[in-house]
Amino acid sequence: MAARRSMSTLVVLASVCLCALAGCGSTNATSSNLPDGARLVQVISAFTGEHRIAAVTVTDPSTTRRISGWINRMRPVPNGPTNCPDLTAVEPGVTLTFRAYARGPVLAKATETDFGFGSYACNPLTVTVPGSRSRSLVAGQFLERLQRLLSVNFGFGEGAIKGKIYLAGGPAPSIMKPLAGHVTLYRTHQPPQVGSTPIASATLPRPAEFKFSGLGPGVYFLRASVKGAPSRCHQTSVTVRVGKTAHASIPWGCGIW
Fold first, then answer.
1. Within a domain: residue 25?
2. Dihedral sign, CA of 76, 78, 81, 87?
3. Fewest CB atoms less than 10 Å from the CB: which of 14, 184, 241, 246?
4. In sequence order, what E strands does the chain have?
């Protein structure tokens, strides 16, 4: 699995080059990315279809003004072609909902997925105002600053999974010994189905441990095959947390006895 930070460097360099060609520096900052009247900001960080990682409601007037000010000073994504890499890293999406008061109508929404390197042309902050066209803004380290301002962790960062394939249903000592085989890793809010696309895989030509690094926090599913034969066991589910290495033992051979 490619290192996420290496990919981020390429994205930053690509964005700088594109800005130089498109004249980003000559674009005037706008003061109307958000409408007036927002007194409350609801901030939610979550993976699509999964539980919330963080949820904060901001009502302090000075904090609300600061958040709005940051967004209002952002520049739009430059016009022209953008050569974006395949952003396969896993990070939660953060949504900010602006209202005049609790349960009031939505004045605006801002959403961004930060892939570990900030917001650039390839992953802008998208601001949607009812009755207006969406705006794509270059937000830089906005979400990182927002975390510090609100003293909350949106779930950014990396973890790892390591483990083994073991023979299920055999003699007790075999459970302790890893098998040679192939491990496939999926990231989804539901168990992978036929045709699902894995995000990484590892081939073990001899009995050994596998390891997947640079993973965003969340739930992963693993499948194993030995000598080309897929496991008939239940799929293994593993939860990855930032800065932690999760351990997984994948059974193989269920139902073949």
1. no
2. negative
3. 241
4. 40-46, 52-58, 75-76, 93-99, 106-113, 125-128, 135-138, 159-167, 181-187, 200-204, 210-215, 218-226, 229-230, 236-240, 245-252
Instruction: List, in order, residues 6 or more apart from 57 with CB less than 8 Å away.
Output: 40, 41, 42, 43, 102
- Answer yes or no: do 166 and 139 share one domain: no
Q: C-alpha distances in angstroms, 203 versus 4, 6, 178, 240?
A: 21, 23, 13, 21
The answer to whether residues 198 and 176 belong to one domain is yes
- Final residue before a domain boundary, out of 99, 132, 150: 150
- pTM as predicted: 0.60
Q: Is residue 67 assigned to a domain?
A: yes
Contact 104, 46 (CB under 8 A): no
pLDDT of 130 reads 95
Whether residues 179 and 114 fall in one domain: no
Domain span at residue 120 reads 30-150
Residue 16 in domain: no
Number of domains in the chain: 2
Do 127 and 165 lie in a common domain?
no
Contact status, residue 140 vs residue 119, Cβ threshold 8 Å: yes
Helix axes 61-72, 142-150, angle to 10 degrees: 170
Nearest to 224 by CA among 196, 248, 188: 248
List, run by run, the mean pLDDT of 10-residue segments along the chain (257 residues).
40 40 39 89 85 90 97 92 64 92 96 82 93 94 94 86 88 76 81 69 95 84 92 86 88 73
Final residue belonging to a domain, choices 128, 150, 172:
150
